[in-house]
Specification:
four-stranded parallel β-sheet; 284 residues; 13 strands; alpha/beta
């Protein structure tokens, strides 16, 4: 039985679901090392249930998204894995482990979403400096990783461009447990009017401004409909204002919704709007 160490940032539901499913496979032993319980800017009161072997490494937060993981290397060495799977690359602790495994001849794989996701408030704002730092951070992946696994075909193609063709690439997407959504679908009822659902932060990256434009376009054509948003962000107040402008549009801004309440919100809508400009893997 091989021992595998998986290094990831925090318990995001799309990662937790696939690790929970992997735990059912008894051929290999694996342990997930989480470097943060919840990162800056997230509003979950609790995360998904971790039904797999894991270790929460205590985070030493310097500022917002800048953090250190002082115990990571020690915990990794104590676990003594036969191989490592790295799911991100930017943090100092992740960089240290990639170089450590390369020097110690421990084979490791990079497994991640598509690169180049543009966030509205990047840690480094200067585009040229950000590009340079990113290339430096990706050096160990390009030269020392044994394989690169992309979460989806687009990720695989972009990593081929990033690292060249002299590498083994595989498509290993996420797994999502959709049973809570199928369960609520059994109780769906016919709705008297179209109800558009927007799920995600009300931001430029998620295309909230595009949705606002679409709402105004349909409202001006006289369509009677309702809109539900679950999320917060810079456009939150703009959605509130629309309801005062049009008599034929009902806006329901739910704000941030906790994980176990998300399926219920989906049940009460009949058109999903997903206008993201940039997503590594759109969980919506």
């Amino acid at each position: 039985m091989k021992k595998i160490a998986i290094i990831t940032s925090f318990p995001r539901i799309q990662r937790v679901d696939i690790y929970n499913e992997m735990q059912k496979n008894k051929e290999h032993e694996f342990n997930v090392f989480y470097l943060r319980s919840m990162p800056h800017g997230r509003h979950w009161k609790y995360g998904p249930k971790l039904k797999h072997n894991h270790k929460l490494i205590k985070e030493l937060r310097i500022w917002k998204h800048l953090y250190l993981s002082p115990r990571l290397l020690r915990e990794f060495v104590d676990y003594n894995p036969d191989m490592m799977i790295m799911t991100q690359y930017a943090s100092p602790g992740m960089q240290l482990l990639m170089y450590y495994c390369s020097i110690k001849k421990i084979p490791w794989i990079f497994w991640a979403e598509a690169p180049h996701v543009r966030y509205e408030t990047p840690f480094v704002k200067n585009e040229k400096l950000r590009t340079i730092l990113r290339k430096i951070a990706m050096i160990p992946i390009k030269y020392f990783s044994k394989e690169v696994w992309g979460v989806g075909d687009r990720a695989v193609e972009e990593y081929k461009i990033e690292f060249g063709l002299n590498k083994i690439y595989k498509n290993l997407p996420y797994y999502s447990d959709l049973r809570p959504f199928f369960k609520i679908a059994e109780n769906r009822k016919e709705m008297p009017m179209p109800c558009f659902l927007f799920s995600g932060s009300l931001s430029y990256r998620k295309g909230a401004d595009l949705f606002l434009s679409a709402i105004k376009l349909l409202a001006n054509e006289g369509l009677i409909f309702s809109v539900v948003t679950m999320g917060i962000g810079r456009y939150y107040k703009d959605f509130k204002l629309i309801e005062h402008e049009y008599d034929n549009v009902k806006i329901d801004n739910l704000g941030f919704i906790q994980l176990n309440n998300v399926p219920e919100v989906y049940q009460n809508s009949n058109i999903l709007v997903f206008p993201s400009r940039h997503d590594g893997w759109g969980m919506t």
